[in-house]
C-alpha cells in the first residue's frame, strides 16, 4: 500500500515539476524534463510491481533487473561482443559500404537508376527479416550468418537514400561545376557526394537500428551458446525474466549509442546543412 | 510507364542471377550423389538436377512458383496446408496491430502538438522507445501475455502496434505542424477556436504526412506480426511457416512463405496508396 501511495506522490511531483520546467526556455530545462519523466516512469514501475505484488515471472522490478545486470555482467559482455560487435557491426559496415558503392554505380547509369530504384523501394518495404532462416542455413550458426542478415537488411534503405541524395543537386550547381571544367569524378567528389550526405546519414541512421534487430532476431533461428538473441530466447524458457530484461537494457543502450554515434558523425560531417545549424 | 523496360530488365537480371546461384549452391550435393552412384554427369544433366532437388540450398524460381501455386490455388483456403490460410492469420494480426498503432500514434501526436509538457517529456522517450529492439523481445512479450491469459491474435497485434505507432507519431507531429504562421494567423483572424483550427486547418494539412507514415507503419506492422509468430510454437501464420520450414530444412516452403509475405506487404501498402490517391484527389491536393 505504501508503495502505491509513494508511486502516486512521485508521479504527481514529477508532473508538477515538468509543468513548471517546460515553461522555461533554457537548455537545462529542455534536458531535465525528459530525464524527470524517465525517472518517474522507472519509479512508478518499481512501485507498481512492489505495491501490487506482481510476480517476477511476469514483470521484474527495476531494482531486481539492476541487481541482475551487476551480477551477470560477464555473460552480458560476452553476448554483447558476439551479437553487437561481431554480428551487427560487421554486417553494418559491409552492407552500408556495398550500398554506397552500388548507389554510385546506379547513379552513373540512368537505365539502372530507373530500373533498380522501384525494385529497391519495393524490397525496402518487405519483411526482409524472413530471410534469416535461409542465411543461417547457408552461413552456419556463428556470427557470419548474423552479419549476412544485417548486410541484406541495411542494404536497401541506404541504397535508396543514397541514390536520392546523389540526385539532389540542382541544374545550376551542376552547370557551375561544368564551367569549372570539372570532370565526373571531381564533381562527384566535390559537389554531389557532399550534397548527398544528409540523405546518406538518414539512411545510415535507419540502418543502425535495423542492424541490431537483424542480428538479434537471426539468432532465434540457430546460434552458438552466446549472443543476445540466444540468451533472450533461452532465458524466457527458463522464466529468468530478470536476465531477459538485463539483455534488453544492454540492447537499448547499445542501440542508443549506435544511433547517437551515427548522429554525432552526421553533425560533424554535415555541419553546413540547415537542419544542423541554428540549434 | 517509361520505367517498365528498365524494371523488367532488373527483374530479369535477378531471375538469371537466382538460377545461376541455384546451380552454384546446389552443385556440391548433386555431385556427391552422383559420385556415390558412380554416375558421371554431363553439364546439362548437372544443371537440371540442381534445379529439381527436394531440399535444395537455394530452390530455383520455378520450384518456388510451383509450390506457391500448389499451396495457394490447389488447396482449400480453410485448410492448414493452404498458404492463404496462413497469410490470413498473419494479415489479421497485422491489420489489427496497424489500426491500434495508428490510433495510438495519432493520439500521441495530437497531445504532443497541443500540449507543451507532453512535447518536452514524451517525444524524447518515443524516440528512445524505438532503440529497444522490440522484435528481439517479442518471444518474452508473447509468453508473458500468455501467462496473464491474453493469447491468440492480441499479443501479435501488440508487437505490430509497438512497431507501427512510431512512424505515425513522427509523421503526424510533422504534419500537424506543417501549416505555417501565415495560415495559423488567418485562422486567428477568423476567430477560430482551437477545435476549428484543428479540424479545418491542421488535420487536412497533415494528410500527406499521415499517408506516408501509414505506409511505413504497415510494413513495420507486418514484420512485427511475422516475428510475433515465431515463438508461438509454430501453429499458424507465415512466421510459423518460416520457422517450421527452417526446422525441417524445407527451403522451398520457406521461400514460398517469404514470397507470400512480400505479396501481402505489397498488397497492404498498395491499398494505403490507393486510399491516399482517392483521398488527396477529393481534397484537391493531388
TrEMBL record, chain A:
Keywords assigned: Cell membrane, Membrane, Transmembrane, Transmembrane helix, Transport
Record-level GO BP terms: transmembrane transport
Keyword Zinc-finger: no
InterPro entries: MetI-like, MetI-like_sf
Entries under SUPFAM superfamilies matching the protein: MetI-like
Residue span, ABC transmembrane type-1 domain: 98-267
Bilayer disposition of the protein: Multi-pass membrane protein
Location(s), subcellular: Cell membrane
Gene Ontology cellular component terms for the protein in this record: plasma membrane
Keyword Ribonucleoprotein found: no
Membrane-spanning ranges: 27-45, 89-107, 119-141, 147-167, 199-223, 243-265
Protein name: NitT/TauT family transport system permease protein
Species this protein is from: Alloyangia pacifica
TrEMBL record, chain B:
Alphabetical UniProt keywords: Cell membrane, Membrane, Transmembrane, Transmembrane helix, Transport
GO biological process: transmembrane transport
Domain ABC transmembrane type-1: 83-276
Cellular compartments annotated: Cell membrane
Annotated Gene Ontology cellular component terms: plasma membrane
Record's keyword annotation contains 4Fe-4S: no
CDD domains (UniProt xref): TM_PBP2
Membrane topology: Multi-pass membrane protein
Transmembrane segments: 6-26, 83-114, 134-154, 216-240, 252-275
PROSITE patterns: ABC_TM1
Record InterPro entries: MetI-like, MetI-like_sf
Family the entry assigns: Belongs to the binding-protein-dependent transport system permease family.
Protein name according to UniProt: NitT/TauT family transport system permease protein
Lineage of the organism: Bacteria, Pseudomonadati, Pseudomonadota, Alphaproteobacteria, Rhodobacterales
Amino acid at each position: 500500500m505504501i508503495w502505491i501511495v509513494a508511486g502516486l506522490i512521485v508521479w504527481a511531483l514529477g508532473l508538477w515539476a515538468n509543468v513548471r520546467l517546460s515553461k522555461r526556455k533554457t537548455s537545462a530545462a529542455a534536458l531535465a524534463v525528459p530525464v524527470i519523466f524517465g525517472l518517474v516512469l522507472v519509479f512508478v514501475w518499481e512501485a507498481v510491481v512492489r505495491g501490487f505484488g506482481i510476480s517476477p515471472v511476469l514483470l521484474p522490478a527495476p531494482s531486481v533487473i539492476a541487481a541482475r545486470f551487476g551480477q551477470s555482467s560477464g555473460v552480458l559482455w560476452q553476448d554483447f561482443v558476439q551479437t553487437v560487435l561481431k554480428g551487427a557491426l560487421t554486417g553494418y559496415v559491409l552492407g552500408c559500404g556495398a550500398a554506397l558503392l552500388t548507389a554510385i554505380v546506379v547513379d552513373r547509369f540512368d537505365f539502372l537508376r530507373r530500373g533498380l530504384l522501384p525494385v529497391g523501394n519495393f524490397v525496402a518495404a518487405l519483411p526482409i527479416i524472413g530471410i534469416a532462416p535461409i542465411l543461417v542455413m547457408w552461413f552456419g550458426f556463428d556470427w557470419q550468418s548474423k552479419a549476412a542478415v544485417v548486410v541484406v537488411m541495411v542494404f536497401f534503405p541506404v541504397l535508396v537514400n543514397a541514390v536520392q541524395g546523389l540526385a539532389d543537386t540542382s541544374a545550376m550547381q551542376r552547370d557551375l561545376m561544368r564551367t569549372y571544367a570539372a570532370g565526373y569524378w571531381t564533381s562527384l567528389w566535390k559537389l554531389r557526394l557532399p550534397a548527398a550526405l544528409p540523405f546518406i546519414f538518414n539512411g545510415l541512421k535507419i540502418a543502425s537500428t535495423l542492424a541490431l534487430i537483424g542480428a538479434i532476431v537471426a539468432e532465434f533461428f540457430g546460434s552458438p551458446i552466446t549472443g543476445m538473441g540466444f540468451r533472450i530466447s533461452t532465458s524466457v524458457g527458463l522464466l529468468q525474466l530478470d536476465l531477459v530484461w538485463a539483455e534488453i537494457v544492454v540492447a537499448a543502450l547499445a542501440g542508443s549509442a549506435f544511433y547517437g554515434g551515427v548522429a554525432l558523425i552526421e553533425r560533424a560531417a554535415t555541419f553546413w546543412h540547415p537542419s544542423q545549424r541554428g540549434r | 510507364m517509361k520505367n517498365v523496360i528498365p524494371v523488367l530488365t532488373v527483374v530479369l537480371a535477378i531471375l538469371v542471377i537466382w538460377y545461376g546461384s541455384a546451380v552454384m549452391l546446389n552443385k556440391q550435393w548433386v555431385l556427391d550423389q552422383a559420385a556415390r552412384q558412380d554416375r558421371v554427369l554431363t553439364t546439362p544433366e548437372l544443371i537440371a538436377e540442381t534445379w529439381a532437388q527436394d531440399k535444395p540450398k537455394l530452390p530455383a524460381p520455378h520450384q518456388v512458383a510451383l509450390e506457391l501455386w500448389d499451396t495457394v490455388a490447389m488447396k482449400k483456403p480453410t485448410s492448414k496446408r493452404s498458404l492463404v490460410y496462413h497469410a490470413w492469420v498473419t494479415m489479421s494480426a497485422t491489420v489489427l496491430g496497424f489500426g491500434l498503432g495508428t490510433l495510438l500514434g495519432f493520439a500521441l501526436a495530437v497531445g504532443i502538438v497541443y500540449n507543451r509538457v507532453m512535447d518536452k517529456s514524451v517525444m524524447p522517450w518515443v524516440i528512445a522507445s524505438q532503440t529497444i529492439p522490440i522484435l528481439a523481445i517479442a518471444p518474452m512479450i508473447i509468453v508473458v501475455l500468455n501467462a496473464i491469459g491474453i493469447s491468440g491474435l492480441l499479443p501479435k497485434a501488440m508487437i505490430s502496434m509497438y512497431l507501427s505507432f512510431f512512424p505515425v507519431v513522427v509523421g503526424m507531429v510533422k504534419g500537424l505542424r506543417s501549416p505555417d504562421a501565415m495560415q495559423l494567423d488567418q485562422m486567428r483572424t477568423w476567430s477560430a477556436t482551437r477545435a476549428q483550427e484543428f479540424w479545418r486547418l491542421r488535420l487536412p494539412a497533415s494528410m500527406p504526412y499521415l499517408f506516408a507514415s501509414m505506409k511505413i507503419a504497415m510494413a513495420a506492422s507486418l514484420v512485427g506480426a511475422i516475428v510475433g509468430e515465431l515463438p508461438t510454437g509454430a501453429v499458424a501464420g507465415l512466421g510459423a511457416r518460416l520457422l517450421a520450414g527452417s526446422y525441417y530444412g524445407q527451403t522451398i516452403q520457406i521461400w514460398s512463405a517469404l514470397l507470400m509475405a512480400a505479396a501481402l506487404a505489397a498488397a497492404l501498402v498498395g491499398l494505403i496508396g490507393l486510399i491516399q490517391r482517392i483521398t488527396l484527389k477529393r481534397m484537391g491536393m493531388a
